[in-house]
Amino acid sequence: MAKRAPAKKQTKKEAKQEAELFLAPDLEGLEPHVLAYALVGRFLNTWAFMESALNEAIAIALDLKLLQGIIVTAEIDFLKKIFMVRTAVKLELFEKQAKEYETLLNGIQKLSEDRNIIAHNFFSMFPEEKAVKFYHYKARGKLDISTPTYTISKLESMDAELHDAQRKLSKLGDEFKKRRSVSTVPGLFQSSYQVSGLGTLGLLGLPPLK
Amino acid sequence: MDKTNRELDQELFDLIYTPTVEEQNAIYIQVGRFFQTWATLESVMNTVIAGALKAKFEHWLIVTANLGVAEKIKIIRSFITASSLSDADRESFDDAMIAIDKLSQTRNIIAHCMFFPDPGNRGTIFYNVKADKKLKQVEKRISKEEFEKMESDMLSYSVKLNDLRDQLMTTQAGFQPFTYHEQGQE
Prior knowledge:
The complex is a heterodimer of chains A (about 210) and B (about 190). Chain A has a domain at about 30-115 and about 150-175 and about 195-205. Chain A contains seven helices and four strands. Chain A has helices at about 10-25, 30-60, 65-75, 80-90, 95-120, 150-185, 190-195, and strands at about 120-125, 130-140, 145, 150. In chain A, a hairpin with a 4-residue loop joins strand 1 and strand 2. Mean pLDDT of chain A is about 80; it is low at about 1-5, about 20-25, about 185-200 and about 205-210. Chain B has one domain (about 20-170). Helix content of chain B is about 65%, strand content about 15%. Chain B has six helices and three strands, in the order αααααβββα. Chain B has a three-stranded antiparallel sheet with strand order 1-2-3. At the A-B interface, helix 2, helix 3, strand 2 and helix 6 of A face helix 1, helix 2, helix 3, helix 5 and strand 2 of B.
C-alpha cells in the first residue's frame, strides 16, 4: 500500500475557506426568492444541530446514559431545555465560567424567538433591501402585527452564531464531564458519551468512527 | 490533544458522505420552499376559522395567533362536521383535513430534525429520535419528487380550503340546528 504523504499544514486562509464552506455554503447566484428558501432551510438545519448539542449537554449534566438522555430530551420544549442547562450551569460551574455560559444561553433563548418567526410565517425576499420579510402576528395581551425583517447578512450572522453556540455547548458538555471525573474513580465509570465519542451526532445512534 | 466534538462530527460527516455545495443548497431550498408553502396553507386555515366564526379581522387574528396547527385542524374538522354542507362535501373536506393532519406530522419532522442530502434520490434525509411512549429513531428520507408532491398537495388543499371558507361564510355555515344529546345516546 502506498504511503500517505504527510498532511500539508493548512494555512489560516485555507482553514477559513474550509470553515466557510462548511458553515456557509455559497448561496450567491441564486434567484432572490430561491435565496430566501435557502436561507430559511439552512437556518432551520443549523438550529437542529445546535439543539442536538443542547440535548447532549443536558444528558451529560444529568449524568445520563445515551438512551436515558435521548428519552429525557426528546419530548421537552426548547425553552425548558434552556432552563435545565441554565440550572445545571449554576449548580456545577464556578461563577466566572457560569457567567460565560449564562450569556451563551441568553443568546440562544433570544435566537429562539427568531427561530419561531422563521419557522412559522409566510415570507418573501426584498432584493433591493437584501432582506427577507416575515409576515407575523401575535396576540399575547396585545395584538401585534409586524413584518420582522432579516437582512441576508443578519441571517448569515445568526447562522454563524448558532454554529458557535453548538461548539460552546459541546465545550460545556466537556466541562460537566470534567466535574464528573473529579467525583468518580477514573475508569470505574465511563459514560456512554465518552464511549461513543461522537459529539452531537452520537445522539443519532450512528455507527462509531473507525 | 483530544479532538473536539465538532471535529469528530466533521470527521464522521466526511466519512459518511461529503455533499457538494450545490447538493447542500438544493436541500436548503427544498426545505425553505416547503415551509413557505406550509405557511400559505396555514394562513388559509386561519381564514377558514375566521369565516366560520364570521369574526372581525382583529378578532380572528387574536384567536388564530394562539392556536397550534393541531388545534386549528381539530377546530376546522369540527366546523365541517357541524355544518349543513352536503354529506359528500363534508366527507371531501374532512378527508382533506385528515391529509393535512398527516402532512403536519411530516412538517414537524422537517422543522425539528437535522438533515443531510440524500445522494440516492436527490432528496433529503432527516434524523431524529422520538421518545413518545416508545423510543424510536426516525430516519426519514424525502425525495425531490416527494417534496414536489407535498407542495403541490398543499397548494391544492389551500384552494379547497378557500372554497370551504366561502361556503361556510355564505351558507350561514351552514351550521346544523344544534341540540344537546344525553351521554350514552347515539
